[in-house]
Amino acid sequence: MTAVKAAAVRNSAGVLLSRDILTKLRVDKGDLVHVVETTNGFELIPNEPDFKTQMSLGEGIMREDRDILRKLVI
Question: Which CATH number fits domain 5-73: 2.40.160, 2.30.30, 2.10.260, 3.40.50?
């Protein structure tokens, strides 16, 4: 477990993450990170929570309709 520090940011507060944590999340300064509440607390997610589901659906459509998509490209 890693402890992080809440710091004042104008009229609000922010959480400071180490370079190691940013690297593991694959995010950089200024990137959007989603905070999802779970039964065990909160989870930081580097992309939209539904992103994996949306990508799987898109890949399925591309596989099923490969011939149609090729014709559209030409």
Answer: 2.10.260
Contact 33, 27 (CB under 8 A): yes
The bridge status of strand 34-38 relative to strand 41-45 is antiparallel
Give how far the C-alpha of residue 53 lies from the chain's centroid of Cα atoms, to the nearest Å.
Answer: 12
**pLDDT (0 to 100) of residue 3:** 84
Please write the tens of the pLDDT for every residue from 19-56. Answer: 998 998 888 888 888 888 999 999 888 876 677 777 88
pLDDT of residue 34: 87
In angstroms, rounded to a whole number, what is the distance separating the alpha carbons of residues 66 and 54? 18
CA distance 44 to 27: 11
End-to-end CA distance of the chain: 53
